[in-house]
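Service request form, structural biology core

Requester: graduate student, group of Dr. S.
Request type: structure prediction, single chain
Budget code: on file
Notes: please return the result as structure tokens.

Sequence provided:
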Amino acid sequence: MNFASYVDIQARERPDELAVTDPQREMSYAELRAETDAVANGLAALGVEPGDHVALFLPNLTTFVTSYYGAMKLGAIPVPINLRFGEAEIAHVLRDVAPSALVVLDRFVDAFADRDLGVELVAVGDEDIEGTTDYGQLVADAEKSFHTAERLDSQVAEILYTSGTTGDPKGVQHTHGNLAANARGGARHMHMTSDTVYLTIAPCFHATGLNGTTTPSVVTGAENHLLPEWDPEMALRTMESRGITYTVLIPTMVLDLLEHGPGGYDIEPLETLVVGGSPMPKERIEQVEAALDCTLYEGGGMTETTPLAVINSPEQAVRKPGSVGTVAGAVARLRIEDPDTGEAVEPGERGELLWHGDTVMKGYHDLPTKNEAVFVEREGREWLRSGDIGHRDADGHVFLDDRLDDMIITGGENVYPREIEDVIYELDEAQEAAIVGTPHERLGEQVTAVVRGDVTEAEVQDVCRGSLADYKIPREVHVREEALPQTATMKIDKVSLRAELG
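Core staff response, request fulfilled:
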């Protein structure tokens, strides 16, 4: 089934109920259906055909949602582009998917106007820009009724790009079946219903914002409130005014909320805060739950799993510190194996996480060699190699220890940075911490810490010395006042740190 059909289903069942808002606009499900139908008709009039790519260069606005579902209704494939990408990365995405149309916020049009793209530019905003089609006029002129194109569950529904920290960004192909499984599985595990009130702050060009809240909200028939940029005060104000019950954030946003504090805002309705993207130390989780008076659930996954794969959920009797939960059994299966031999490891042993199930991507767009490398057959099933190192305890709780690429080999010993970072976060003044391997003449690599906060090198080494083996204690500690560099998906950029310190 075409995933965009959920818009039509909810418009029939709850036409007057609130579907989506941004700070300037709100839309009912009936209005969402009418505008997505108009977008589909408008794109078709511009020459977009089923199977074509429609690029979206938009922040979290209602027009992102209408453009996304409008393209999908036509049978085209929406391709959100990361607004944090640089010129070279944007050029790579445009070459890679060769879109038939590009929907772009008016203030970003200049970034594309001088390119010989050969695509239709649709500008969103109040400005009348020469050489573009005005989004508002496109919608106004189009019919408000469209028969949603039929699509198989196995056909590509969207393409999301990875952050490209180790090369060009890769286009992850999610099918209509992936989106449905992810949304329904998330609703089942996290008890989402039509009464859930979502807040979407994580960008919709990222799996966390798009498939953590935005696509599930349409499946459950709930409200989804979008914020176009990260502002802790605006987030708290929206939580209060809209009665937000559920949101998904990344760790840096959670830390900002913690620093800002809830102040005088009434956010009592907030029940569930899901954190994905990278692990959070248990001390921070406890601080956030106390400050915001909600339950914080860590989840694990990746763009390649749409992203639902493993999660802590309300139905769990026990949440174990440091665990991202248990496998989302409704949609995924997990295998942990030795990355060198491919042999399965025992509970408690570290290995690479491999995923199989309904949320696993179809593959990377136009990268057959890469697909051959990441998809492997084990015991008659196809599994996706994640590149994550972790372990599962005897009770089935999964722990993400690190990225395979981030592991440090120092003097022949394997060191996993997250273990050290968690210890550093025991220092109250440590706001951000990153452990990277840097060259060492005798050891090959040495453990190096980069910390933001009011701490000293001695304090960092002392707290590590109290908990860790000697070879894990950072030989160098760099303390900074400024925030650590981030990738385009707002994770700490260890590649740039290694390059800087190497």
